[in-house]
User: What shape does this take?
Amino acid sequence: MTDFKMLFNQYSWDEIQMQIYSTTDRDVQHVLNKDHLTLYDFGTLTAPAAAPYLEQMAQKTQQLTQRRFGKTIQLYAPLYLSNECQNICTYCGFSMDNKIRRKTLSDTELLLEAMALKSMGVNHILLVSGEANKTVEINYFLHAIQLLKSHFSQISIEVQPLEQSEYELLHAAGVYAILVYQETYHREVYKQYHPKGKKSNFDYRLDTPDRIGRAGIHKIGLGVLLGLEDWRVDSFFTTAHIAYLQKHYWQTRYSISFPRLRPAAGSVAPNFHLADRDLLQLICAYRLWNENLEISISTRENETFRDHIIPIGVTTMSAASKTNPGGYVVDPQALEQFEVSDERDMETIKNQIRKMGYSPVMKDWETNFAGIVR
Assistant: This one.
């Protein structure tokens, strides 16, 4: 059975980095005149040489996005289940070595949080937890989904990597999408950021989207933590991963997220700086490479950047986010996983989307139409 790891091992981080940074002005012009872009064309559009062409890239990105997705922005909100974690990650507020008060939501607390989100009009939630494999595990997730699925049209999850059989259980339970981030594809330094816990196993995490794909999950979300390593090279490998998955699990939809390293308790400072202009260039490169890719922006980003990206290439945004378990009503003072930058409430964000000439979408489609059991 093939997996992405076989392809991944054929690439050299240093060679890809050298190729991106040796891109010329002529290379960029050639790619911008093409209708169908390759993986290496994507790398060209992330290169420093492509920066002077950002306005041209943005205009073409806007056209492609509107043609494929229309003038709509789907909104969702995260619901944090637990900040318990058995990993040490140098950039995360939930890291096991941080001396914080740990909390996992009970049934009552989970429903209170859910009702708070429903009162905001939220219909698509993302269940998030720390990676505590012995306490917040598959049975906890299945129970939480059972409690919540009658209240929301879509439930997605972002939790620790699981086995294929467990993803099959989540699929049967009605999970719409699963997000999993490699954090960085730089194998040699990955261990430095993840010195202890199951997450320190680079290959197991790398194989996770294959297990999700084989389980038949409707949508897979990928990304890296921008700021850990060279964002251009990490994004090249993310794109290679998506291209591989699309070939092997062609009935699945794919999304990309752009979590920039944000302040958190005990976290490291970014190793590589990613300016707003760089992030815009990266978003455009993804859209020009693949017009069907769903592009998501979270409340990690400030409101000015989020407002300006609406008419360019984004298709999905989180809103009114709380990144701590119980953060909406149960325990607002609990430690956040990271600091939220855009703190506007749901109605303010919806009104801003309308002001930009777009429609906020709270309910994209019925899971029943895709044959997902609810």
